[in-house]
Amino acid sequence: MPRDGRILAGMAGLGLIGILVGGAFAGLIHEAARDWSGAGEAFDAYLFRVARFTLWQAALSTLLSVAPAILVARALARHPAFAGRGLILKLFALPLALPAIVAAMGVLALLGRAGLFADVLGGWSGGRWPGVYGLPGILTAHVFFNLPLATRLFLQALEAVPADQWRLAAQLGMGARASFRLIEWPALRAALPGVAGLVFMLCVTSFTIVLTLGGGPGATTLEVAIYQALRFDFDPARAVALTALQVALTVAVVALLLKLGAGMAADAGLPVAPRRPAVAGGVERWVNAALILASLAFVAGPLAAVVVAGARADLARLLADPAVHRATLTSLVLAATSAFLCVALSLALAAARRAMEMKRRRDARPSFLERMLDTGAGFVLVVPPIVIGAGWFVALRGTGQLFALAPVMVVAVNAVMAMPFALRAIRPAWDAASARHERLAAQLGISGIDRLRLIDWPAVRRPALTALAFAMALSLGDLGVIALFGSDSVQTLPYLLYARMGSYRTLDAAGLALLLGVVCLGLMMLAEQGRAERGRPELRGEAR
Amino acid sequence: MSGAGVRLDRVEFSYGEAAMRFDLDVAAGEIVAVMGPSGSGKSTLLNLIAGFERPSSGRVLIGGADATRLPPALRPVSMVFQENNLFAHLDVARNVGLGRSPALKLTARDRADVAAALARTGLSGKEGRLPGELSGGERQRVALSRVLVRDRPVLLLDEPFASLGPALRREMLDLLRGLQAERGMTILMVTHQPDEARALARRIAFVEDGTVAAFAPADEMFSQAGPSAFRAYIGA
């Protein structure tokens, strides 16, 4: 039966994910069992200080991102004809598409010791500007990422308010205060737990930002501490303790998030075209404009700094540097492999889930396997890449092959990491195509490879390419697993960038950040375009 | 190829809460209109014959042979749905060609048959069009062309012309009647339109509450003496 082939493929995909996650946990548990006292002793004051800082910076980042986002989203919602509004919203989508290390570079290029604002800031503070490191640096970068994300999500919530309600508000003569209390706030409040939870989760598991901008003993999160325990102190027992705490923490946060009904994949679609008249007047107009411009400056600043600092670098020399060549090639190969693996796994899971759904009777409850195919990939969001990397690092460290396995680890972890996003692109298209074609294919006896070639692939090609571009961008910009497993022999672009930052070759780093940022943004735009085009009628199947 | 008889022998099927039980005997080469209220089980009846649904008990006999366990592609049956009869990304010729080879490996003979079928349904010159570029009537003509190249003894139609206007629908009925006269296949067509049923079918099967409540000549069904439930359904 061809259907069984699809289910087998899905089971194989799930198995692969299971081995990746399970193997990591097996490594950690084995290490802990070998030396209980060591792992127990690792639960010391340092560890709890790190845990406290992890939560503290995440809470502050969330507050500083979400509170202004409410005001900015409201301002944008009340000025549908604000000059450049569409552009601003597009700009607000950029930080999410940017590799974290590039954003960190942007913050440093602006506010670092040798940043564009260093002289001004030094003048204000009286003396030499020390650079925005530690907690302020982490918060700045986190707000740079999450303020625009939260703004877009809140704006979505506001634009979901029916146009009739606004007309009614205008007819009843509601002022700014009344319409906020009666219309806007209820919509915002409904979205608030989900948005705040998502931002909090992203900040709790933030690795690259903390590694590059924090990192000192006073500003270390659990994930960075895991990395330091493995790469510098070589203290597996401590790494195990830290990992256990990190997993417990993320599980708790995710459980809370699910309870609040938050979407787990950070991805806000562009709000629909404005369709209500401008309602703000007088003073409010100026306040709103100031709010929008301030947030715009905050988001555009680091982006511009990446470009300005990158342009100052000797790009010609960088492009001729053999180390850059090697890193670029390694990055491209690993990212492409990872993206292909991600799309293949996502297709297998989507096909198997749909096949199982059709096989069971309509009134029957989905089996455990079907539910795993449905939500299994979501579990990787609970287990941060660093934790998977740490588990395998501990498990493999005796083999002497640790750094030789780097490519495998990077490809596998990055592929699985991108799966929740890939599935969101692929699954709806797959299910819709299946609903249209299933009986026809069964009647005509189209099955197996013919079916994949003639029927299924054409239907999911576009979303699959979207997912491919997205997964590739994600993998290309990632500095997670490679930070653990990287070495002189296996370097990716982010790894090289981080190394140059560490050795104070700031200009080189700025140039590399520009390169990396441009490539990742290009891929993300490709993915976004694919998504937008899917609305075209000839792709929706037969026009009615 | 001529038609084959279709017999449902104490076929039982449960769909969620609703339990259905069908007994029906259609002669080879006969045209039957299947009528009845929405949700009464008309489509399920056709799906059981086509093999998209499996009965929990009873037998489906086609041409005298037991087809109960056969997968849809191996049954001597073609089915035309109300929509989604075509793959939107394949052109007209390929959509028809799939009726010959599910891998689209077509011989010169197959291609000639596809061209002939398209000519017969009035689609010559539209071989290279995509379904999205055709009108609703043309898309159903493509589906009928595929029925021709498949050349199976039984044809099932599930409200095939429901989304077409009155003139177009009459045109399609004429085409269908012409094809049946040439090939002699057995036809079961689900429809809500009394004029369609009268124009095409000799006998009417009235499905109600998951069973064939009446199966009689059209004249009789539409007369004063027809079953009262059927008369209520058509609003007579």
Structural class of chain A: mainly alpha
What would you call the structural class of chain B?
alpha/beta
Unreliably modeled segments of chain B: none
Q: Which percent range describes the beta-strand content of chain A?
A: under 5%
Report the C-alpha radius of gyration of chain B, rounded: 18 Å
Question: What portion of residues of chain A is helical?
Answer: over 70%
- The best one-word shape of chain A is globular
Quaternary state reads heterodimer
Written overview of the protein:
The complex is a heterodimer of chains A (544) and B (236). With 544 residues, chain A is mainly α. In chain A, 76% of the residues lie in helices and 0% in strands. Chain A has 22 helices and no strands. Chain A has helices at 2-34, 36-41, 45-78, 85-97, 100-111, 118-125, 134-159, 163-171, 176-204, 208-213, 222-231, 236-260, 283-312, 315-320, 322-359, 368-375, 385-396, 406-444, 448-476, 481-485, 493-502, 506-533. In chain A, helix 15 (322-359) crosses helix 19 and helix 15 (322-359) packs across helix 21 (493-502). Chain A is globular. The relative contact order of chain A is 0.13. Mean pLDDT of chain A is 83; it is low at 264-275 and 535-544. Chain B is an alpha/beta fold and 236 residues long. Chain B has helices at 42-50, 92-97, 108-120, 136-150, 166-183, 194-200, 218-222, 228-234; strands spanning 6-15, 18-26, 31-35, 57-62, 65-66, 77-80, 154-158, 186-190, 203-208, 211-217. In chain B, the strands form 2 sheets. In chain B, strands 6-7-8-3-9-10 form a 6-stranded mixed beta sheet, sandwiched between helices. Chain B has a 4-stranded antiparallel beta sheet with strand order 2-1-4-5. In chain B, strand 4 and strand 5 (65-66) form a beta hairpin. Chain B is globular. The model of chain B has no long low-confidence stretch (mean pLDDT 92). The interface between A and B is medium-sized, with 24 and 32 residues.
